[in-house]
Design a protein that fits this description.
mainly alpha; 79% helix; single chain; 197 residues
Length: 197
């Protein structure tokens, strides 16, 4: 990612297009950090105020359209996804099935919360939505709301408060992931204890 960030910073005039393209590659499950690209775009916007709108649009549209891309990869390829070595190496069938189980149980809540969790969870979630043939309109609308919240918040915070925001975001993602795991674990434990034997 350091090389990618350096490349974006040295090609500021084309940064919105580069960031957009990188995020579209991320939609194919390549290990490219969306959060880092949002932060880099916001920091570049501070140095180049005339590019605030184009940098934000590049990162926002790239983030949202790459989510839709992941959905359609899952929907079109279905279970054949793991016959393609490229995808089989990048994301395991087991992780998609696990996330798919959460999705089936909690629906759009999982999609909304999952948008805030990095580590490849996002793409696995979007692939799962496509694999389970979630209604595209429902997926697109829910993801649009979550994507708008995360992009506007992270871009704005970085723009006004600087790169120190990244550490807080990273810690915040760990906290959200931890709380989500505890809630889901508690739910299953409670359900198991309350279910008739």
């Amino acid at each position: 990612m350091d090389a990618i960030v350096g490349f974006v910073q040295h090609n500021v005039a084309y940064a919105p297009f580069i960031v957009f393209g990188l995020l579209m590659l991320a939609g194919l499950s390549l290990p490219i950090s969306e959060d880092l690209l949002i932060i880099v775009s916001a920091l570049l916007a501070v140095k180049h105020p005339d590019m605030v709108v184009s940098l934000f649009l590049g990162v926002y549209l790239g983030a949202y359209l790459s989510d839709l891309e992941s959905y359609w990869v899952g929907r079109i390829l279905g279970r054949r996804l793991w016959k393609v070595k490229f995808f089989a190496k990048l994301i395991s069938e087991k992780s998609v099935q696990s996330i798919g189980a959460y999705y089936e149980r909690y629906g759009t809540f999982t999609l909304l919360l999952g948008r805030f969790i990095p580590f490849g969870v996002r793409n696995a979630l979007f692939l799962s939505a496509g694999l389970s043939r979630m209604h595209f309109g429902k997926f697109a609308l829910t993801d649009w709301a979550a994507c708008t919240m995360t992009n506007v918040a992270l871009f704005s915070l970085t723009y006004f408060y600087g790169e120190g925001v990244f550490e807080y975001v990273r810690q915040g993602n760990f906290i959200i992931f931890g709380v989500f795991s505890l809630v889901v674990g508690g739910f299953f434990l409670l359900r198991k204890r309350c279910s008739p034997v």
